[in-house]
Specification:
Strand content: 5-15%
Oligomer: single chain
Number of helices: 15
Number of domains: 2
Largest sheet: 4 strands, antiparallel
Structural class: alpha+beta
Radius of gyration: 21 Å
Number of strands: 6
């Protein structure tokens, strides 16, 4: 059978089929079509299919039952569908990202994430977190500078993590340094309405996770504490520390939004702030009690709900003192 040759844009449209909100069988047909019919002009694109998608049957699914539900998945999705769902929730959850020019580079980010072990049991959490931060840094750079936007449109799909980190990682590090300086020059007054609990093991985290999301559907609850494998992924097998900034009245705050904005930062959302600190003491992940069923402020999303400085302002203690020296 003669295969169709695709240019870059045609290839991207084919790959995007996998990420559309489709039923599992439709996604499976998309994968089969890419395998069977498509040939691309650039060897890198072929490698994405072969390494990023083609081998997923072997990597993520039972050989004898391709549609076997993922063991940690409450929605009954197959392993492959669950993995793609997790990728979008972690890296492209915010609609602003999905509608921006950054989405053009999604296949490259997918491959970077897979290379870093995303959803494979033993991942490079630091690398994955850096990828997520780079995506947002690029988004804001494109929004704030027409020149930067032009540069991003010309980035090839074979761009490496190292190349993006060289340019945008430096900007992230500079912003972190400025944030640290502002925090160090601020005199905080401890907020008596909050206490910090942790570091939390999985069993303790699970007890609190039951009181997150809408408190009824497991699919809405905080994944950091709902599934042991997810806790291991996000804490880098326990090498990162999980804390909760807990409002003293958290038990009496119902899962109801303050208003129609459905903000992730309303009374209920901020009554339980989940914070993961990496092995160097930096903020790795942060989310509010609503988890992913609320609206985040501009530039924020699941796992990226608050900055170190914003957390410091809420609890009234310098982030570094609160989570690296104890309080």
């Amino acid at each position: 059978m003669k295969k169709l040759r695709l240019n870059e844009q045609q290839f991207l449209r084919a790959v995007r089929l996998i990420f559309e909100n489709r039923e599992g069988q439709a996604k499976e047909r998309s994968l089969q079509a890419i395998r069977q019919y498509f040939e691309v002009d650039n060897d890198y694109f072929a490698n994405i299919i072969r390494n990023g998608y083609w081998d997923l049957d072997d990597m993520f699914r039972d050989q004898n039952n391709p549609s076997q539900p993922h063991p940690d998945n409450p929605d009954g999705l197959s392993n492959i569908d669950y993995m793609f769902k997790c990728f979008e929730e972690v890296f492209f959850h915010d609609p602003k990202l999905r509608s921006s020019q950054i989405i053009r580079l999604e296949p490259a980010f997918v491959k970077m994430a897979f290379d870093a072990g995303f959803q494979q049991g033993h991942n490079d959490s630091k690398r994955l977190n850096r990828i997520r931060k780079i995506i947002w840094r690029m988004y804001h750079a494109a929004k704030s500078s027409p020149e930067e936007a032009k540069i991003i449109t010309k980035i090839p799909l074979d761009v490496s993590f190292e190349q993006l980190d060289e340019r945008y990682g430096k900007q992230i590090d500079e912003e972190n340094a400025q944030e640290t300086e502002r925090m160090d020059n601020t005199e905080y007054t401890p907020n008596g309405d909050y206490k910090i609990i942790g570091p939390l093991d999985f069993d303790t985290a699970h007890e609190y996770a039951e009181y997150t999301g809408d408190m009824e559907n497991d699919s809405t609850k905080m994944c950091y504490g709902m599934f042991r494998s997810t806790w291991e992924d996000y804490t880098n097998d326990g090498n990162y520390r999980l804390y909760i900034a807990l409002n003293n009245n958290w038990k009496n705050i119902p899962p109801e939004h303050d208003d129609e904005s459905k903000s992730a930062y309303d009374t209920y959302g901020l009554s339980m702030i989940w914070i993961i600190v990496d092995d160097e003491g930096d903020l790795a992940y942060c989310n509010t009690r609503w988890n992913h069923i609320a609206r985040y402020k501009a530039g924020r999303s699941v796992d990226n709900a608050l900055t170190r400085e914003e957390i410091s302002n809420i609890i009234g203690i310098n982030f570094n003192q609160a989570f690296n020296q104890g309080i």
